[in-house]
Amino acid sequence: MKRLFASGFVSKTIITLLLIGLLSSCVQFSAQCSEISSKVLRLHILANSDSSRDQSLKLMLRDKILENSAELLGSPSSKEEAIFTASCNLKKIEKFCNDTLASFGSENKASCRIVSNMYFDTRTYDDNTMPAGFYDALRITIGRGEGKNWWCVLFPPICLSCAVEQKNVFDKDDEEILNDSEDYEYRFFILEAFDYIKSLF
Fold first, then answer.
1. Which residues pair with 120 in a beta bridge?
2. In a domain, 92, yes or no
3. Can you give the residue range of the structural domain that contains 68?
């Protein structure tokens, strides 16, 4: 028995079991977070640069888009409908963005497109924390798109006006992850590390 302990067999076994347990937990939590991302369409706005002027323009454009979201994006009842509506209105959204930028005295042009499986880190918006993962998004790029970005959630309409009818998209488990960010903080960290490791293979 002493030899067994001296050989480190027990220690290695315990460490192996702990790692297996941690990996199993990561896989399960990753699956839960993937379920959330499959229900979400994000809005992603890239500024021309990190200059104060360009960052200010990004935020002013954001405000105008959110103010006119009903006209530009309608009131979809599902993520699929939100993507369809945004896809059909891309030229309209792009024209709106360019007209808005011009009204602010900017010569930069915006381009709009729907992107699939775009990776986002864990981010918090008001009382909701979106876990890291791959999301579909309406991406608006201003000029060179080399500045810091801004994001929110178009569907369900988390970042829109409180007057917008909320959609019952998330189940109880989803809501727990989204709203109890402090309880899940270490899991979000592990999830990002887990996603990074997966990306290496």
1. 133
2. yes
3. 40-169
201 in a structural domain: no
Q: What is the pTM of this model?
A: 0.69
Total domain count for the chain? 1
3-state secondary structure 39-50: CCEEEEEECCCC
Q: Is 78 exposed, middle or buried (0-12, 13-18, 19+ CB in 10 A)?
A: middle
What count of other Cβ atoms lies within 10 Å of the Cβ of residue 9?
A: 11
Per-residue model confidence as pLDDT tens digits over 30-74: 556 667 778 889 899 999 999 999 999 999 999 999 889 888 888
- 86 domain residue, yes or no: yes
What are the strands, taking DSSP E only, across 143-184?
149-155
Q: Tokens 């993520």 label which residue?
A: 79
- The answer to whether residue 147 is domain-embedded is yes
| CA R_g for the chain | 21
